[in-house]
């Protein structure tokens, strides 16, 4: 379907600036209120305020290929619509979920014809462009390179992960942010005052606290806020004064659950998870609890959170509190036995414990060892550490001394320790393990110091 119309249109084309929308009157409020010009666009001032690059590109008509990326309902499609209204040329839309190489070829053929006949430029909007595979994305490259097509791509995914490098190098990237509450409140007010496309004909009286509730609970999703407002208005009877009064109570009924803005594959998911782990690492129990709650409210699988906490228990606590791993495992097992919502206690228990534990990253010694092995190889195993059976057979057939006889069994010595070489000659002692400075690990460190001093 055409993203800027309510009727199927194959191929999905129109002249940029043409806003004929036969089904607009029946469309949701969020669609009807879509801005028709740059001056009407709210939000994203870091991109479109006076003097910014995208603003200059649109106003001068010298727009090159761009990728618009950001969370759902951050205005990517709307901004593409505004660009189509401001730029002179033929505007074509494809949806990467529904359209592929066949539809792209049709667009290219038509673009060549129009360019040859009347020099008309073609702007191609590809929504959810990340859904195209590498071959499909590569098919765009020669036509962008030649100037036949000017691409406007929209994606909710991080383009550095989801789009091929050659395509990124040919496009300007613009990141859109969620609408803030001030922007949403302004758009709600605009909607109730607009008689042509908005709710002005209903004579709406919107209380400030109701407006703020819509703006807050939408969590940056302007579509959610506008459509919730429309539902509130059309289901409220006019009073004696002819006005439809939208109170906080009505607003609460119309948008009951706060929108948490992330998908399990999107950037926000990883941002929240990152904030959770970094809060644990910083020993901020409140911060860790906040971001864990945000993950849960957004629909995150609690098993994912437990897996992250298991890793954290060794990566960031490790030797400072060896029981951390045991506690997280126990909490996870309890979660699986009891289920939600009671299992929230186990998540909270593990989260608070990890946040308040002393920290040590000394378990990362394995990565130092791996790096050394990758660069220099393992080196030769000292003869006395080699397999005793192999050493015995070698000694028997070569009529030499058994190297294993020189191995010193630590349990035969005081404190279960005896001076002995365990590393290859090519590796110095202390190359990997760097002791942390904390109460629990210091007990181990004292023994390590004693061992090293006795050597």
The rough form would be described as elongated
Question: CA-to-CA gap between the ends?
Answer: 77 Å
Largest sheet: 6 strands, mixed
Q: Which segments are poorly predicted (pLDDT under 50) over 5 or more consecutive residues?
A: 1-11
- Name of the CATH class of the largest domain: Alpha Beta
How would you state the average pLDDT, rounded?
A: 84
Number of domains: 4
Q: What's the CATH H-level superfamily name of the largest domain? A: P-loop containing nucleotide triphosphate hydrolases
The structural class is alpha/beta
Relative helix content: 40-55%
Over the alpha carbons, how many angstroms does the gyration radius reach? 32 Å
Name the beta content range.
Answer: 5-15%
Give helix and strand order, one letter per element, not per position. Answer: EHHHEHEHEHHEHHEHEHHEHHHHHHHHH
Give an overview of the whole structure.
- The chain is an alpha/beta fold.
- The protein folds into four domains: 13-175, Rossmann fold (3-Layer(aba) Sandwich), CATH 3.40.50.300; 181-254, Helicase, Ruva Protein, domain 3, CATH 1.10.8; 267-356, Zinc Finger, Delta Prime, domain 3, CATH 1.20.272.10; 363-454, DNA polymerase III clamp loader subunits, C-terminal domain (post-AAA+ oligomerization domain-like), CATH 1.10.3710.10.
- Helices cover 48% and strands 8% of the residues.
- The protein has helices spanning 29-32, 45-48, 53-60, 76-86, 101-118, 134-138, 141-146, 159-162, 165-169, 181-193, 208-217, 222-234, 248-254, 267-281, 285-297, 302-317, 323-338, 344-356, 365-376, 388-398, 439-454, and strands spanning 13-15, 66-69, 90-95, 122-127, 149-155, 172-175, 204-206, 244-246.
- Strands 1-3-4-5-2-6 form a six-stranded mixed β-sheet, with helices on both faces.
- Helix 10 crosses helix 11 (208-217), helix 12 crosses helix 13 (248-254) and helix 16 packs antiparallel against helix 17.
């Amino acid at each position: 379907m055409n993203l800027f119309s309510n009727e199927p249109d194959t191929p999905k084309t129109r002249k940029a600036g043409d806003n004929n929308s036969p089904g607009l009157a029946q469309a949701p409020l969020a669609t009807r209120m879509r801005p028709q010009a740059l001056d009407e666009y709210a939000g994203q001032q870091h991109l479109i305020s006076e003097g910014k690059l995208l603003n200059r590109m649109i106003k001068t008509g010298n727009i090159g290929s761009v990728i618009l990326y950001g969370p759902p309902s951050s205005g990517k499609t709307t901004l593409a619509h505004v660009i189509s209204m401001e730029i002179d040329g033929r505007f074509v839309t494809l949806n990467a979920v529904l359209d592929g190489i066949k539809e792209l070829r049709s667009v290219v053929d038509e673009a060549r014809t129009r360019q040859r006949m009347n020099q008309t430029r073609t702007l191609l909007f590809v929504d959810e462009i990340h859904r195209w595979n590498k071959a499909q994305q590569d098919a765009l490259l020669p036509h962008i390179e030649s100037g036949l097509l000017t691409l406007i791509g929209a994606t909710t995914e991080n383009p550095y992960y989801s789009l091929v490098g050659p395509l990124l190098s040919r496009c300007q990237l613009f990141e859109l942010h969620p609408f803030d509450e001030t922007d949403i409140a302004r758009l709600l007010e605009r909607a109730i005052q607009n008689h042509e496309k908005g709710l002005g004909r209903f004579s709406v009286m919107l209380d400030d606290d109701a407006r703020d509730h819509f703006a807050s609970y939408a969590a940056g999703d302007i579509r959610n806020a506008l459509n919730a407002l429309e539902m509130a208005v059309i289901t409220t009877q006019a009073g004696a004064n002819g006005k439809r009064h939208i109170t906080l109570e009505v607003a609460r009924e119309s948008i009951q659950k706060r929108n948490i803005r992330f998908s399990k594959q999107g950037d926000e998911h990883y941002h929240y998870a990152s904030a959770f782990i970094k809060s644990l690492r910083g020993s901020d129990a409140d911060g860790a609890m906040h971001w864990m709650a945000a993950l849960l409210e957004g629909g995150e699988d609690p098993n994912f959170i437990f897996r992250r906490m298991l890793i954290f228990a060794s990566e960031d606590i490790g030797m400072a509190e060896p029981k951390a791993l045991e506690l997280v495992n126990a909490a996870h097992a309890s979660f699986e036995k009891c289920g939600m919502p009671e299992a929230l206690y186990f998540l909270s228990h593990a989260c608070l414990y990890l946040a308040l534990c002393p920290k040590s990253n000394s378990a990362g010694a394995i990565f130092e060892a791996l790096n050394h092995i990758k660069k220099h190889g393992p080196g030769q195993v000292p003869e006395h550490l080699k397999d005793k059976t192999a050493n015995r057979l070698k000694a028997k057939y070569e009529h030499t001394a058994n190297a294993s006889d020189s191995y010193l069994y630590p349990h035969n010595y005081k404190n279960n320790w005896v001076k002995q070489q365990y590393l290859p000659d090519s590796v110095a002692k202390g190359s990997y393990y760097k002791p942390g400075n904390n109460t629990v690990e210091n007990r181990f460190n004292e023994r390590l110091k004693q061992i090293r001093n006795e050597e």
